[in-house]
Amino acid sequence: xxxxxxxxxxxxxxxxVFNPTLEGRPVGVLSNNDGCVVARSNELKAxxxxxxxxxxxxxxxxxxxxxxxxxxxxxxxxxxxxVTEVLGEFxxxxxxxxxxxxxxxxxxxxxxxxxxxxxxxxxxxxxxTGIPVSVGFAPSRVLAKVANHAAKKHPAYREQGVCKLMxxxxxxxxxxxxxxxxxxxxxxxxxxxxxxxxxxxxxxxLRMANPKQIRRHxxxxxxxxxxxxxxxxxxxxxxxxxxxxxxxxxxSFGRLTGNPHDLREALRQHAARAGEKLRKQGSVTSAVMVxxxxxxxxxxxxxxxxxVVISLERxxxxxxEGYAYQKAGLMLLDLSPxxxxxxxxxxxxxxxxxxxxxxxxxxxxxxxxRELGRGTIQMGLPRKGNAWALRSERRTPRxxxxxxxxxxxxx
DNA sequence: TCTGGGGTCCTAGGACCC
DNA sequence: TCTGGGGTCCTAGGACCC
Length: 411
Known about the structure:
The protein has helices spanning 10-18, 42-46, 60-65, 73-87, 114-129, 141-153, 170-178, 189-197, 203-208, 211-217, 220-229, 260-280, 352-372, 403-410; strands spanning 2-7, 27-30, 37-40, 67-70, 94-98, 101-105, 133-138, 162-164, 247-257, 283-294, 305-311, 325-337. It has 411 residues and is an alpha+beta fold.
């Protein structure tokens, strides 16, 4: 058996830990540039605000009632780390799945004791971090997701915040029969629509479907969901300690811009951040993709989007004008471990001394930025009032990672 | 004025091989 | 009328996740 532990309304809960007056009120956390609502308190959900709702399309009434905060990723990342630490007290097997969810192994535990352990886990996380979580136990990941969902929403479980689903219990059957297939982990709109055409509407219908037939019509991914619904764990999670295969850094701009200086500055900033991520996982890259695009929501403006892949021997700069760009980013492709780095044919080998200097310079830059805050050392200084700087007008202090911001709260 | 960012896996189809 | 068969590798794009 395993548990899926999911933090309730995570970003909002983080904000509430440090500002308890937010309890019981409709609170939302916004995406970058204060663009969309990406986390909602139950009270905000009750007002009918959907996940991903565009901020500027919210009714004046909602905006008056709700407290909408810019996202504070330094805070959420740090709180996430603390929650994960507590989970480690309950099991040696913790797989971090996302910033607010982890699978926790309970292999070999007496199933009759699980609910009790779940309640203890919940209470401990709440006491040590202030974050409320829900716990779903099941023999497979897909069922654990269903159990977790029930622990949050279902009248029979939400009081406790814990739900256990055995593969063949009556409870499991009842729950799956109520659950629209599209609410399953791994089934979204496209697949859901095609399943409905085949007469498969609930999670129970999918569980009873013929796995081989599902594979023929869809893919091995969907087939695995059928086995998982039957309680057979067949989905493996990627080992989070494995290095990433691609690294992307991209941001929408604070305002639209066609100024080549803006584009260059933004890309330089993104490249620096991507390099940091790359070095952190000990990889090197041999190809960089750079992309820019206009705002596709603006039907009134000419649209343009393009990307160029640059092989690193011959880096080029490509800048165009005449469009109002909304977003730029870059992706490091074709990553490999630093240790295996191969010389390409015709490449002039770097001398040992040069390699050494470059290595220690980058290590120093990373260290300073890590310890003194991002942006302490930058490659080239951005101009004032640039169009690409993020808008973030309602961010709370970074309570757990910046002393100076904590002081402003105390005073 | 104004609509997020960062990933993964799988499949289909083309290029190429013998 | 009629143009092999079987394989690998790579890439683009779809679908999905939070």
